[in-house]
Amino acid sequence: MGYISPEALQNLHKYAYKGVDKSILSKYVLNPFWTWFVTLWPLWVAPNTITLSGLSIVFFNFATLFWYDPGYLAEKGGVLMPDWVYFSCSIGLFLYQSFDAIDGKQARRTGMAGPLGEMFDHGCDAMNTTLEVIMASQALNLGRSWWTVASQVATLANFYLTTWEEFHTGQLYLGVFSGPVEGILIIAAIYAISGVYGPSFWDTGMLTFLHLTNVPIINQLPDMSLNDSFMAFGAFGVAFNLQASYRNVRRARLASKKSTLQPLLLLLPFVVSAGIQVLWLTHPRYDNSALINSSLFVPFLCAWGLQFAHQVGRMILAHVTSQPFPWWDWIWVWSLVGAVDANLPMLVGRPPLFQTNETNRAIAVYLTLAISFVTYGRFCTLVINDITNFMGIACFTVRKKDKDGNWQESVPDSGKKSL
């Protein structure tokens, strides 16, 4: 009942991480900082401990934000968030990026680089993605809106594209502008600006902000708000990343004399899974409220994020173990049932079978969240156990097994560079 067959486990020995980062900011500013920052960590700290510490900071930021805005209404709903919460989110996201960047360096310092770290890092990134979408949308004063849903789709699409590209090319490719580098710094800046001016600042028109409303010709353009403009920028980013990722995949497929069109079919699982979630959100108003306008909106997005984390987790697992690409995820059936039930008034002209009122709808959403959490938790537990047992390592301890099967502290070779 596990995720890795005995044959696939053998392929773990063949795995070697490959990455390309063309970011100028990363090369000349961030990487020198990360190289120094990792030296502050003792060699007895496991790389995965650093990764989990970064995610824990994000969890704290997420909990703090919803302590002050449990209804996820932002300033549009009259909620005045303390300024320090946004500054905390900004610092927390920067720390997450830093911790996420140095875990690989720590792995090389301690001699623990390998597929387990790749899986663990990817899994934390997948969970952080949805949490940051929710927090950033609140900071942008979007709250419960289709713009927040669009942000979720766009951000998850970028993450899926990166994983899809790595599966086909064998390496993680970060371009001159990427989400893990420049994208994170932009979001951190958004938090900081919201801390100074408040989320309502982002409702300011772009032309008004640039003082162009009195300039001839330009003042004929719509004065789109700053948050709407940021959403348009995000859509452009998805389109750019799609063509860039496919270009890299196509180059790799041509080099190996394989079909260049077949990988495009493997984008369909994301389209299907995202489509199911959006279908559930678009159910008609058969009573006084719709899901997207209720307090269930954030739990729903969290359930969606956990299902996505399970989906891309299986993709990266297939990559590191040389298994076939995972086309299907059974949890889609559960969400599809919820989506169809909610849309029965539109489909067959009758009320939903279960989601007939706010209480039943809450049960359906929170049950979906619980099932998604258990499913992803089971995936993480089984995969970590399989890899650690097979490779004779520990997930959160810098140690290895000797030839007699006894645990020994791992000491890097004295001649190794502290990368």
From TrEMBL:
* Keyword Transferase appears in the UniProt entry: yes
UniProt record similarity statement: Belongs to the CDP-alcohol phosphatidyltransferase class-I family.
Cited InterPro entries: CDP-OH_P_trans (IPR000462), CDP-OH_PTrfase_TM_dom (IPR043130), CDP_ALCOHOL_P_TRANSF_CS (IPR048254), CHOPT (IPR014472)
Where does it localize? Endomembrane system
Instruction: Kindly list the cofactors needed.
Output: Mg(2+)
Q: Which Enzyme Commission number(s) are listed?
A: 2.7.8.2
Q: In which pathway does it act?
A: Phospholipid metabolism; phosphatidylcholine biosynthesis; phosphatidylcholine from phosphocholine: step 2/2
Q: Where mainly found? A: membrane
Name of the protein in question: diacylglycerol cholinephosphotransferase
> Which UniProt keywords are present, listed alphabetically?
Membrane, Transferase, Transmembrane, Transmembrane helix
Say which domain of life the source belongs to: Eukaryota
| Main enzyme class | transferase
Q: How does it sit in the membrane?
A: Multi-pass membrane protein
Q: Name one GO molecular function term.
A: diacylglycerol cholinephosphotransferase activity
Task: Record the organism.
Answer: Favolaschia claudopus
Q: Point out the coiled-coil segments of this chain.
A: none
Q: Which residues cross the membrane?
A: 50-68, 80-99, 173-197, 230-249, 261-282, 327-348, 363-384
Catalysed reaction per UniProt? CDP-N,N-dimethylethanolamine + a 1,2-diacyl-sn-glycerol = a 1,2-diacyl-sn-glycero-3-phospho-N,N-dimethylethanolamine + CMP + H(+)
Q: GO CC terms for this protein? A: endomembrane system; membrane
